[in-house]
């Protein structure tokens, strides 16, 4: 028995640091065997009890650690996984705490969750597979009819797809010539290129082949668009000019004008006592372009700006009288739009600006008066811009510099006159359309 208990005695010495027999520590010249002979039955029992308690503590601690590390797994419909602790299931959502922030409760809608695998092994289905939304593509035909389905593959002639509500998952097909574009479920859009059109007269609509949707097996054919409702595309490729570019561009949009103080520092235009106090302004402009050649277009631009300046004269903090000065600018310019590369362009232009101004005083003014004047100064400059197509819209973004020669803009009754060259820098965003008709 003593030799069997020898390993337990060594373990007790290491863990508890005492001699389980209660005796004094033996001298160094005594052997291990002589120590074992001194164990009595009480010491053996104490050592056995301590060993059992130690094993029990280790077992309970291991089970507690395993229990605390268990987490629930929330599997979403999109394939992502959330690990944490599910606290509550409601009619609209699932309340849970994540592993990174265990004290912060979060809610996820039920429609986004497929199932929950709890830490104790239970599994609860939240959204069955049968009712989960299937991502679908939209097939837009040339006559604007929309077919909903899932594109599976395509070749040089046909496109193959399946319908989302077809339990047999039958593969169907459409001719690429019938398609205008494909809007994929992930947000991408693909424009289907049209084949080159020969110079021969187009086939009348009444004799044109109607788009047909057929099952790939060839057992059945179902008309997608009836013969009565089908018509040729509203803007067929044949109506484009031979060069393949749009002839007419029309855009309208805001234009922000700035009068640089560094260049106009000596001008009365910026002075709020003798001029208009105008350092910036915002207006609107319309531009019409006609493409003469691929890289050259004739351009006409017209705009409108309004401005009002009110001067108030006070004495000892009390208002005595006021002067109100208004100004309307209508620039009209002609230019040549040059496309040196792609949609990037330069636009030198020139014309006139129709200025209409008025100066009106209050009744308490020392010399009450109301005077209106007009002038048409020569204006010229250059624009640098870029055009881009956004679906069916045309965007025209440009920066513009102009020089306006104001000559003899005179208020006779107030003895004020402007004779100066005013520099104007502006930014314009035009939104419009372009036509492919010849």
Describe the structure.
- With 438 residues, the protein is mainly beta.
- It folds into four domains: 6-68, no CATH class; 72-131, SH3 type barrels; 137-239, no CATH class; 248-435, Beta Barrel (Porin).
- Helix content is 10%, strand content 50%.
- The chain has three helices and 23 strands.
- It has helices spanning 6-16, 32-36, 41-68, and strands spanning 72-76, 81-89, 93-98, 105-109, 113-117, 123-125, 137-141, 146-154, 158-162, 171-175, 179-183, 189-191, 212-215, 221-223, 248-258, 280-293, 296-315, 318-341, 344-361, 370-375, 378-390, 393-411, 416-435.
- It has an eight-stranded antiparallel sheet with strand order 12-11-7-8-9-10-13-14, with no helix packed on it. It has an eight-stranded antiparallel β-barrel with strand order 15-16-17-18-19-21-22-23.
- Strand 18 and strand 19 form a beta hairpin.
- The protein is flat.
- Mean pLDDT is 77; it is low at 1-6 and 202-243.
Relevant terms:
438 residues, mainly beta, SH3 type barrels, 4 domains, 23 strands, flat, disordered N terminus
Secondary-structure-based class equals: mainly beta
Unreliable spans are 1-6, 202-243
Number of helical elements: 3
How would the global form be characterised? flat
Through-space gap between termini:
114 Å
Could you please say which CATH topology of the largest domain applies here? Porin
Give the total of domains.
Answer: 4
Largest sheet: 8 strands, antiparallel
Share of residues in helices: 10-25%
H/E order of the elements? HHHEEEEEEEEEEEEEEEEEEEEEEE
The assigned CATH architecture of the largest domain is: Beta Barrel
How much β-strand is present in the residues?
A: over 45%
Rg, nearest Å: 44 Å
Q: Could you name the CATH class of the largest domain?
A: Mainly Beta
Q: What's the total count of β strands?
A: 23
Going across the major beta sheet, what is the strand order? 12-11-7-8-9-10-13-14
- Overall pLDDT score: 77
């Amino acid at each position: 028995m003593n030799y069997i208990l020898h390993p337990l005695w060594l373990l007790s010495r290491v863990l508890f640091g005492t001699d389980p027999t209660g005796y004094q520590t033996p001298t160094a010249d005594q052997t291990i065997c002589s120590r074992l002979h001194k164990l009595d039955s009480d010491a053996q029992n104490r050592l056995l009890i301590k060993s059992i308690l130690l094993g029990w503590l280790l077992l309970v601690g291991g089970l507690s650690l395993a229990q605390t590390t268990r987490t629930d797994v929330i599997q979403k419909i999109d394939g992502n996984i959330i690990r944490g602790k599910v606290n509550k299931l409601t009619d609209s959502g699932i309340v849970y705490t994540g592993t990174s922030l265990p004290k912060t409760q979060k809610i996820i809608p039920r429609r986004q969750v497929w199932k929950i695998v709890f830490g104790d092994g239970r599994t609860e289905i939240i959204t069955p597979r049968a009712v989960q939304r299937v991502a679908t593509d939209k097939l837009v035909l040339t006559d604007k009819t929309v077919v909903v389905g899932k594109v599976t593959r395509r070749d040089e002639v046909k496109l193959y797809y399946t319908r989302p509500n077809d339990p047999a998952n039958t593969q169907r097909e459409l001719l690429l010539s019938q398609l205008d574009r494909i809007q994929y479920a992930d947000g991408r859009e693909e424009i289907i290129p049209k084949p080159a059109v020969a110079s021969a007269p187009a086939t009348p609509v009444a004799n044109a082949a109607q788009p047909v949707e057929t099952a790939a097996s060839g057992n059945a054919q179902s008309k997608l668009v009836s013969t009565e409702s089908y018509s040729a595309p509203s803007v067929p490729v044949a109506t484009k000019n031979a060069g393949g570019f749009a002839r007419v561009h029309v855009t309208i949009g805001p234009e922000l004008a700035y009068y640089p103080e560094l260049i106009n520092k000596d001008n009365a235009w910026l002075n709020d006592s003798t001029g208009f106090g105008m350092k910036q302004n915002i207006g609107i402009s319309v531009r019409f372009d006609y493409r003469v050649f691929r890289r050259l277009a004739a351009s006409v631009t017209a705009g409108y700006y309004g401005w009002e300046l009110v001067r108030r004269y006070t004495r000892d903090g009390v208002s005595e009288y006021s002067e109100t000065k208004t100004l309307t600018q209508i620039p009209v310019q002609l230019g040549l739009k040059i496309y040196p590369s792609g949609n990037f362009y330069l636009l030198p232009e020139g014309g006139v600006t129709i200025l209409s101004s008025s100066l009106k005083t209050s009744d308490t003014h020392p010399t009450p008066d109301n005077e209106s004047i007009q002038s048409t100064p020569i204006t010229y400059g250059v624009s640098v811009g870029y055009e881009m197509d956004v679906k069916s819209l045309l965007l025209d973004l440009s920066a513009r510099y102009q020089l306006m020669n104001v000559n003899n803009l005179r208020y006779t009754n107030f003895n004020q006159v402007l004779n100066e060259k005013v520099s104007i820098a502006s930014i314009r965003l035009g939104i419009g359309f372009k036509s492919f008709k010849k």
